[in-house]
Amino acid sequence: MNILLFHSAYGLRPAVHEAAERLRAAGHEVHVPDLYQGRTTETVEEGMEIKDEIGKDELLKRAILAAAPYSERGLVYAGFSLGASIAQTLALGDEKARGLLLLHGTSDMAEDTAVDELPVQLHVADPDPFEPGDWLNSWYLQMQRAGADVEIYRYPGAGHIYTDPRLPDYDEAAAELTWRTALGFLDSLEPAGESGE
Question: What's this model's pTM, rounded to 2 decimal places?
Answer without folding.
Answer: 0.95
